[in-house]
Amino acid sequence: MLNAHGFCLIMNKNKRFIQMKQILSFCSVFLIMAAADAQIIAPDTVCAGDTVILTTPVQGRIFTWNLDTVNITLSPPPSTTVLQGPPLNTPTYATMNEDNGNWYSFVSNAIIREILRLDYGNSPYNTPVATSLGGFGLAPAGTAGAGHLQGIEILQDSATGNWYGFAVCASQLLRLDFGNSLANTPASTLMSFSSFFAYPLQIGIRRFNNDWIGFVGSQNGSITRLEFGSSLVNTPVAQNLGVSNFNLPTNFALYEQNGLWYMLIANLINPAGLTRLEFGASLLNNNPAGVRLTTPAGRLPRPRGMFLISNCDQLYAYVVNEGPPTAPQFGPPELELIDFNNDITNNAPTVTLLGNYNLSNNSLRPYIFNGDLNALLVSNSGAGGSGSVNVNTISNLRLFSFPAGSVSVNSYNNPDISHVFTVPGTYDITLFVDQGAIMGPSSFCKRITVITGQSGFLGNDTTACTGETYILDAAGTGATDYLWNTGAVTPEIPVTQPGTYWVQLTGSLCYSADTVTVSFDPLPVDIGPDRVACLGDTVTLQAAGVYNNPVYQWSTGLGTSSINVTRPDMYWLRITEPGGCTGSDTVHVKMIPPPLISIGDDTIICASTPLRIGMAYPGATYLWNTGETDAYTEVSSTGDYILSVSVESCTVSDTIMITAMPDPDIDLGPDDDICPEQVIILDASAPGNNRYVWNTGDTTDSVSVSAGGLYQVEVTSEYGCSSSDSIMLRHYPEPVVMLGNDTTVCEETPLQLSAWTLNTDSVLWSDGTTGNPLSVKSGGTYIATAINKCGTQSDTIVVKQIFCDIMLPNAFTPNGDGMNDIFRILGNTGRMEGVSFGIYNRWGEQVFHTKDKYQGWDGYYKNRPSLMGTYVYLLEYSVDGRPYLQKGNFHLLR
């Protein structure tokens, strides 16, 4: 069967209607809102406690479900400016979009023809970071066809997930391709539509009948439709609509009512106010009728920003006004609320002033965030002049908040939610769809009635005694009609046979039904399973359960609730309750001889040698207090060990005390070295009365050794627990050092004394220095001492230092090669005093003279290289006060 909206309903096994979710082929979602509740798919009436699926064929980005009435007539709070001044430069239109958890606004700076991207991060309430995307080749100011950059639209293709932007300037349409993220730098395509629109203001684009369709409102008073086909990357086909009764359309919004399409237009001037275009059943109508709306005097003097919003019984428009024209400026700006009384064809809606929020030359962009309906306001100086208080700003108004029971679903393809209505009543279900369009969020309504049914009134499944009559009663439900599965139609029925019984209460949508199972059994009596006990034990028999004044009769003749038995036999108990309900049970008690076990006497063991304890008994099971379940176990630590041996249910235990003694704790230490004539004491003593055996033949707890080798000892305690240890002593020799024969050197001639050593850790010299070799500069007696851990050994050397004659070379080559470039005094110059050193050429001229015994001639005379040839030198000096004169000749070669 069909409900009032034409959707299929089926009846389930409990005769409750549930709605089947339809897959709809139409995509008419260009509208800002549609009044028909067919846009919400849900049953009109549901039963309390049932799960209801709420869905919609409308496409969008953010679906906000409200499960109760929303009041959208609240005035907004004062606006909060989130961006002001540069980089804003006469901004005119802006968007607000959410992409993968981040919020972005795109702003058109009109005069400089620039698009800004504002990045708000994870909340549109944050202060944004502005990035200029540039002008994308739009016509510069002063050129033919140049104009202001105005309307901008950003939207996502749900089929591909790619983002596109569109902006209008003069006769140009700019398309931006962002790819899969609004954070990308977009590619651009510029298209000219000079024959269709000039100085356009707003642009809006949405799907209609599976194709993309857009509208552009121009300052010259025209509306142009753009038909993109199935893809936004297509160049659209433009069509000017033949429309009258409007001028300077700053903003517009679409609305569908009763299957007919309407466009509401804000006219800035000539005259200002609102115009309604009537498209009929299709937005492809090229000649929609234009109707001027009548508004109260003084209201809507210069409307600019505008959007529509509807609830179940409400249809409103929020409109921004520049204010009435008063020379020489416009003002004051204001925000108006237009009430259409839930009918878009109302030609005289009510207009209410909400307040002055410093608005001027504004566009108004609605969006939903965190349960709030917000409006993004763009303001610039424009024609508002000095009367515009809030200029070159982007501000935010929070118009109203959804109740706490609202549910948000952020998805393109799955707007469905499930809900359980537990309280009967009438619910107005409102769906707000934020499509991210310049025309704002859509809203749809549906009224659902929740009614109740009953269940569980027959009680739980029950068991009655055999022969008893049990009454099933549904009279307490208050129903008027009853139908039992036995065919009875009375409120109650008698039951004498086991089975499943149900009753259905008829007469309403939520049919009530209940089912109960009745069983008939004798009085249940249970005295437990058969028992096995040890011979000589006492066993108590007692019936489990609670009875009503029972009479007990045991096979032993006793009439008590329990009995104690000490011999094997079959025992039975019969219980009778008043009214004749009787039951009985039988148990077999078996007595067996206890097993005879012994696991040994208490004993002492070595901890390093485990002891096996236990015993085996035919047909028995075993449990040690350690948790093991074998007949035998190995123990190596001190403690009581208990073995329980069970034959059937007869269990006997035995205990053994184990004392585990430790092995002697000995340690001869690590391997070591032993010097010649050294004596080392090896100590293996350990507490207690122990026996010692060394590999030397000694039997004392310690021994003295003076030679290298391997020494071993074994120690045995009085309990027979033994340990052993060994140590290796390595022979270590004394050191050896040799300095060689005594030596003679020239004065001031450096000499290194190198000591030859063997088995030496360090060398100490007689002057207190250490290391090898030793550098000396003077004669004397030097002693080197070799040292290691076994002792020292020394050797002596005598160094004699004598004076050696000086000498001068017979030639030198001052050619700058770094070899023999200087003619100087050589030999033992250290004791020379009063030096006079001169050089003469063959003509007797002195070419060089110095009193520094370390300075020589470089072959230059008067800063010029001297000629090759023979030169004469004259050297005067004294040693220990005795004068010397030496002269000779030499050759200068090059």
Describe what you observe in this structure.
- With about 900 residues, the chain is an all-beta fold.
- The strands form 24 sheets. It has a 5-stranded mixed sheet, with no helix packed on it. The chain has a 5-stranded mixed sheet with strand order 4-37-36-6-34, with no helix packed on it.
- The protein is flat, with a radius of gyration of 58 Å.
From the structure above, extract its key features:
894 residues; mainly beta; five-stranded mixed sheet; 0% helix; flat; disordered N terminus
Strand order of the largest sheet: 3-21-22-23-24
Q: Uncertain regions: pLDDT < 50 for 5+ in a row?
A: 1-37, 382-389
Helical fraction: under 10%
State the shape.
flat
Helices and strands, with pairings:
Layout: E1 9-11, E2 17-19, E3 33-34, E4 45-47, E5 51-54, E6 62-66, E7 80-84, E8 91-94, E9 97-99, E10 102-109, E11 114-121, E12 129-134, E13 149-156, E14 163-169, E15 172-179, E16 187-192, E17 200-208, E18 211-218, E19 223-229, E20 237-240, E21 249-257, E22 260-267, E23 273-280, E24 289-292, E25 303-311, E26 314-321, E27 325-326, E28 329-330, E29 334-339, E30 350-355, E31 363-369, E32 372-379, E33 393-401, E34 407-410, E35 417-420, E36 425-434, E37 442-451, E38 462-465, E39 470-473, E40 482-484, E41 492-495, E42 499-505, E43 512-521, E44 531-534, E45 539-542, E46 551-554, E47 562-565, E48 569-576, E49 582-592, E50 603-606, E51 611-614, E52 621-624, E53 632-635, E54 639-647, E55 650-661, E56 672-674, E57 680-683, E58 691-694, E59 702-705, E60 709-716, E61 722-731, E62 736-738, E63 743-746, E64 751-753, E65 756-758, E66 762-765, E67 774-776, E68 780-788, E69 791-802, E70 806-807, E71 811-812, E72 826-827, E73 833-840, E74 846-850, E75 860-861, E76 864-865, E77 869-879, E78 882-892
Parallel strand pairs: 3-21, 4-37, 38-43, 44-49, 50-55, 56-61, 63-69, 71-78
Antiparallel strand pairs: 1-2, 5-35, 6-34, 6-36, 7-33, 8-10, 9-10, 10-11, 11-12, 13-14, 14-15, 15-16, 17-18, 18-19, 19-20, 21-22, 22-23, 23-24, 25-26, 26-29, 27-28, 29-30, 31-32, 32-33, 36-37, 39-41, 40-42, 42-43, 45-47, 46-48, 48-49, 51-53, 52-54, 54-55, 57-59, 58-60, 60-61, 62-65, 64-67, 66-68, ...
